[in-house]
């Protein structure tokens, strides 16, 4: 919204026109140099005609003042090389790394973080006139914004909420570079390095958590197994023939293991029948 308002203000008819007032001496100097260029056209043509690429624009300055509010290009454009100078502005998306730096989090933990930023210049003339070195200024501002943003987060938040932190940094950078004609498109946290002592403490905590979960799972398994055994015992006690089937199943399992000695279990009911005959 802010960028749209700036562009709308620049397009008002009561603003300075493309041909800015250079004063009487300036007009006279431009007239004389233009006459010289026309007189020596075959000689000066190569210095007056310039080219910018499809991804570039040129901000032209005449006698030190911006000639046009809108940058020219791409393709050919004409300048008076006696009075005009121009600066090329690259409109492609620029990517740079924020150097790794130590940051103190909200819970007083020192971490080392680096990030990557993607930005581009959407208003070429403002990126030239509003700031001395837009690229260098954006890099320094990104470092400060990263430090200030992570300083308000705890270590747990930094490790688990990278996406939201990146979005917050991107919005803060974009609003700060908007007056320079720069749009920050994306910010990504690359790496977060913890101190060695903190890494050992977190590893011990994770190991203790895993052991506690393993013991809980083992206890739940034993409880379920005991319930199953009790249910099997109840079924066998209710149905005497079930134990005969269990004997046969045990015999099949033992015989499959290639044992040299096989013990056949004798049901107790058979012993009772022999006792009755005696």
Automatic annotation (TrEMBL):
Matches recorded under Pfam families: Band_7
Family: Belongs to the band 7/mec-2 family.
InterPro entries (alphabetical): Band-7_stomatin-like, Band_7, Band_7/SPFH_dom_sf, Stomatin_HflK_fam
A GO cellular component entry from the record: plasma membrane
Compartments reported by the entry: Membrane
Annotated keywords: Membrane, Transmembrane, Transmembrane helix
Domain Band: residue ranges: 47-206
UniProt protein name: Band 7 domain-containing protein
Transmembrane segments: 28-52
């Amino acid at each position: 919204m802010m960028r749209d308002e700036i562009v709308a203000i620049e397009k008002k008819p009561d603003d300075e026109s493309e041909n800015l007032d250079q004063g009487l001496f300036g007009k006279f100097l431009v007239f004389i140099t233009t006459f010289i260029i026309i007189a020596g056209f075959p000689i000066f043509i190569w210095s007056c005609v310039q080219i910018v690429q499809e991804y570039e624009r040129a901000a032209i300055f005449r006698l030190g003042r911006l000639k046009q509010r809108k940058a020219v290009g791409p393709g050919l454009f004409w300048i008076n090389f006696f009075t005009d100078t121009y600066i090329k502005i690259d409109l492609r998306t620029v990517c740079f790394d924020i150097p790794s730096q130590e940051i103190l989090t909200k819970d007083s933990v020192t971490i080392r973080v680096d990030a990557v930023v993607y930005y581009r210049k959407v208003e070429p003339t403002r990126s030239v006139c509003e700031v001395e070195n837009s690229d260098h200024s954006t890099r320094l501002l990104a470092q400060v914004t990263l430090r200030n943003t992570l300083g308000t987060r705890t270590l747990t938040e930094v490790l688990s909420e990278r996406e939201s932190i990146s979005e917050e940094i991107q919005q803060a950078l974009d609003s700060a570079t908007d007056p320079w004609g720069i749009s920050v498109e994306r910010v990504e946290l690359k790496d977060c390095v913890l101190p060695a002592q903190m890494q050992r403490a977190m590893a011990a905590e994770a190991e203790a958590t895993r052991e506690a979960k393993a013991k809980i799972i083992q206890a739940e398994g034993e409880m379920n197994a005991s319930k199953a055994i009790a249910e099997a015992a109840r079924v066998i006690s209710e149905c005497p023939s079930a134990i005969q089937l269990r004997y046969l199943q045990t015999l099949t399992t033992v015989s499959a293991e290639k044992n040299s000695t096989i013990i056949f279990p004798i049901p107790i009911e058979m012993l009772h029948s022999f006792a009755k005959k005696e």
